[in-house]
Design brief:
Length: 721
């Protein structure tokens, strides 16, 4: 007689078959996501009503003294679990190997910090809207109030009995739908495995490895050992209660749908603990699970690991002193969920917002691991709280020491393994220094030459001829450049002149149907060179100043950049705010290409600082003879320089928000050429050219050719194209 497979075995088989199907058929499995979504919808349709009904009925049974004990005991258990996961986050974060890297500019540097709306999350001002929007914390708060109010009513028993009938009905429906789990899990796994990008997984491998290691450590070592050391229950009992729920939560990515399954399994176990007369001593299991669910579970809080990972990935590891404030604020932020908490914490730790996009990519796997961990968190909370109510907490010294030793050994193995694995994965992480050094123009370049020795145009304008007329007559446009304006103009490793404004120059020449002569300019003699007809137009990240407005014709600003500081990594904290900078003695700040009026204003704001003008930005990074503490530069340019010099970081001090305009200068104060360029820039803005170049050169969104997802049927067997 064949042994009958249990639900968890069937789910595992469905999961493995789904993954295999996704790898074999690739994106041909995308349509199965409809089947998976339908399965999740069936599971979710009864869960929220079940939580409402069970909370009201079971809290209605409790006397006031039991409700107060539930708040005290449940709160204490939650705090213990939170402390455990926060320690795990800290240990994993400090185990990251040393790694230095810069990052492309991010608009997060200039955006105000986001806020988490705790009130709307927990206070249901409109309960129907909360139910429709699936705001579980708000629904639970309402249910708790109704349940407590019902507990004070003298004739509550008939209503409680009716609510019990509804709860059993909903649980029965949920149990029936759960039998379809192998099919639903197969569909979800196949569509996910067939469509997720391998490149996306490659970028996230360091975070996912450390997150998975922490989840295994907490879910299979710390939490079961905590229950086994403090209660009469055994390690295997905890896993028996949570194993099916963990598998289903991982497969579906929805923790809430496994609550009925957890309730059913936990009630079987708790029955063994209860003795005669214990029925009224502890709240029912189906009260504890809904009460605990709205609070951040250890799977969610472990997601805070992404913040120190992001800092490490960007080459700016968090210091030890930053962790207390980060961890405490993270707990409160996660009441609003990871989608709200992560941008908030990125802002708090002054990390770029584009890392949030990377976090969203991790959701396919990370959230599933977190939900599986959340299932055993809920089981641990319920078992510990129930045992505390029943007076079954035990502290046997031998068992406690045994489990502490097991946890310590596991922690050492986990941290050592993570550090070794991450050290190996660094070899496969994109080297941003090489990326920026090897960047090429987005389109096929126009024929061009680079003239390093400046001089007047060899073909002077004839009387009455405009610059635009001469360009068309010669078939050549002379463009002024300065290679010290990364990422607007610079030489890549192949010696080609590239950058955003160089790309714009090629686009302009292509539209005019001419070739290009790039002529180098010197900032100190730029006005003279323009007057002497050295170039037709200057396109090289030129900052608008009052002095330049007086002596040259130029376009309206085509881009505003943000003034920032570039400082060595280890000194960033001293430059976080203007007030902190004002307290620093002997502060030396270098600058290039700024208005005299602005420099004078800065001297008033920082009377203790010495401002030193440099001939080039590169001199700050390549020499130490000036003894400078910081470089005043645009955040856009500074970010590009940190890619080449990862020991430095861009910081915009709190209390400062200064924009600098960039424009194109026109030779000979030619109004017709200026009007033409204005119109051309307007057209290029409307057709998306400027935005495309900005995203490529400034934000680092490199253009990649779209490729279909790898799969066996197409790339190995070649049965389909």
């Amino acid at each position: 007689m064949r042994p009958k497979l249990g639900l968890s075995s069937k789910i595992v088989i469905g999961l493995l078959c789904g993954i295999g199907c996704g790898l074999f058929f690739g994106d041909y499995c995308a349509w199965l996501s409809l089947v998976g979504d339908a399965f999740i919808g069936l599971l979710r349709m009864t869960v929220l009503p079940y939580i409402v009904v069970s909370l009201i009925s079971n809290l209605g049974r409790l006397a006031f003294r039991h409700s107060r004990r539930l708040a005290l005991i449940g709160g204490a258990v939650l705090c213990v679990l939170w402390a455990i996961v926060l320690c795990t986050v800290f240990l994993l974060a400090v185990s990251y190997p040393e790694w230095k890297s810069g990052s492309f500019f991010s608009t997060a540097l200039t955006e105000p910090a986001g806020e988490t709306d705790i009130l709307s999350t927990f206070i249901p001002s409109n309960i129907f809207a909360a139910l429709a929007d699936n705001r579980v914390p708000a629904v639970v708060v309402m249910s708790i109030f109704l349940g407590l109010a019902l507990g004070g009513m003298p004739q509550r028993q008939p209503l409680i009995e009716q609510l019990d009938i509804v709860a059993r009905l909903l649980l029965r429906v949920s149990t029936f739908v759960a039998r379809l789990s192998p099919v639903g899990v197969f569909a979800i796994a196949a569509s996910t495995a067939g469509t997720i990008s391998l490149d996306e997984l490659g970028r996230l491998q360091a975070y996912l490895i450390s997150y998975a290691a922490g989840a295994v450590f907490l879910g299979f070592v710390v939490l079961p050992c905590l229950v086994a050391a403090c209660t009469p229950l055994r390690y295997r009992d905890v896993l028996a209660v949570s194993k099916d729920a963990m598998i289903m939560a991982f497969a579906t990515g929805k923790l809430i749908i496994v609550i009925p399954l957890l309730v059913e399994e936990t009630e079987k176990l708790v029955r063994r603990l209860r003795e005669e007369g214990d029925e009224d001593m502890a709240p029912a299991v189906d009260v504890l699970y809904p009460v605990a669910y709205p609070f951040p579970h250890v799977g969610k809080l472990l997601g805070m690991l992404f913040i120190p990972f992001a800092a490490w990935f960007l080459g700016n590891t968090l210091s030890w002193t930053e962790y207390p404030a980060f961890l405490v604020s993270g707990v409160f932020a996660y009441f609003g969920g990871p989608i709200l908490a992560t941008p908030f914490l990125l802002d708090q730790m002054h990390l770029p917002h584009d890392m949030f996009q990377l976090f969203l990519l991790s959701g396919v796997i990370g959230e599933r691991i977190g939900d599986a961990l959340g299932a055993i968190h809920l089981a641990t909370f319920t078992l510990l709280t129930t045992c505390a109510f029943l007076g079954r907490l035990t502290f046997r010294l031998t068992a406690v020491l045994q489990y502490l030793g097991m946890i310590a050994c596991s922690a050492v193995i986990m941290l050592t393994g993570v550090q070794m694995v991450l050290g190996q994965t660094l070899r496969f992480v994109d080297d941003k220094q090489q990326i920026v050094a090897n960047m090429q123009l987005l389109e096929e370049p126009v024929e061009s030459v680079v003239v390093r020795e400046t001089g007047p145009n060899p073909d002077p304008r004839v009387p009455g001829e405009s610059i635009l007329d001469r360009i068309r007559r010669r078939g050549i446009i002379r463009v002024g450049y300065n290679e010290d304006k990364l990422p607007f103009a610079y030489f890549n490793v192949e010696g080609d002149l590239v950058g955003m404004d160089i790309n714009m120059a090629h686009a302009l020449a292509r539209d005019l149907g001419v070739t290009i002569e790039f002529v180098r300019f010197d900032r100190r003699t730029l006005a003279t060179q323009l007057a002497e007809d050295d170039f037709d137009v200057v396109m090289s990240g030129l900052v608008g100043t009052l002095e330049r407005a007086e002596v040259m014709q130029h376009t309206d600003p085509y881009l505003d950049v943000t003034l920032a500081l570039v400082v060595p990594d280890y000194r960033v904290r001293r430059f976080r705010s203007l007030a902190a900078m004002q307290q620093v003695d002997n502060l030396r700040i270098g600058f290039v290409d700024l208005s005299r009026g602005f420099v004078d204003r800065l001297r008033l704001l920082l009377p203790r600082a010495e401002l030193i003008e440099l001939p080039t930005n590169g001199e700050f990074f390549e020499t130490e003879t000036h003894g400078l503490d910081a470089l005043l530069i645009s955040a856009e340019s500074g970010s590009a320089f940190t890619l080449l010099y990862p020991d430095f970081e861009v910081v915009i001090p709190d209390g400062t928000q200064v924009s600098l305009p960039l424009f194109y200068a026109i030779g000979g104060r030619d109004a017709r050429m200026r009007d033409f360029l204005e119109h051309w820039l307007d057209l290029r803005e409307k057709d998306g050219t400027i935005r495309e170049y900005y995203e490529h050169w400034i934000l680092g969104k490199l253009r990649q050719q779209a490729r279909r997802r790898w799969c066996v049927i197409r790339d190995v067997l070649e049965w389909v194209d």
